[in-house]
Please model this.
Amino acid sequence: MIVVLTPNPAVDVTYCVAKQQIGVTQRVLTVLRHPGGKGINVSRILTSHGADTLCVLPLAGETGRWISREAQELGQSVRPVWIDGESRTTTTIVDDLHHPTMYGEPGPDADAAQWRELTAVIEETLEGADALVISGSLPPGVPATMVGTWVSAARRAGVLSLVDVSGKALLAAARAGADICKPNREELQTATGCGDVADAAAVLLEAGAGCVVVSAGHEGIEAYGLDGLATSVSAVPEVTGNPTGAGDAATAGLLLAWLDGQSLRECLTHAAAFGAAAVLRPVAGEVDDRALARFLTDTPITER
Model:
């Protein structure tokens, strides 16, 4: 069983327009609404590929109730922790010409007691679990050290931890001994202050991370380990579409292969294939399964 924590869930609204323009009234061609936040996206993909997952969600207000209800209707097991305020909404503008533009609200400002309650729920759900995924941003007022607290809980329970966060929270996860830190290249460089990716990964490894997996979009995905060696695979070539959520799909693919005991190269290959298959879907949290099967069997994903 995989416990997936989304620290800052949202209603994800996707507006499809003919062409993104600033300062111009635009007609929205289609509107899509679904429960979102990086962890929810990861959980949806894990669930749709046979994994037993539990989505732990700090939720607030009517928006939070909508997220909980819709996530369950999509087949996800949800463990809500109710906090003050109102859960957030993110709005993504998509056309066929540009990279999507996303506007993300900050989220509710819960008090310390409610975050302690969330931590207690995580500790409870980790009993008998195989992995803990922590994925997404933190709401306002939540200290980055909370991520370290959750990673430490996984270590005490003997549970694999995979963390996809940014900023000081990424450093906190490494210091707490996260088994896998999975930032994208920009997040890694910003958090560590190192322009060179290998040097930046070394900062997390020296802090205590077991492995650092870095996604770099169309340039592929690479992993750095304590043995000083790096492994990377190329991205699936000639795939175009909506890249929103591709990183979350890569996280799901990586974890599925990791828990299956596959080699590091195979784990990265699965991450690349899942990420590419997500680009072909209109919203985050889904992958094109036909394309995924083709990418895993017929597409030349090369190793460096």
Notes: The two ends are 32 Å apart (CA to CA).
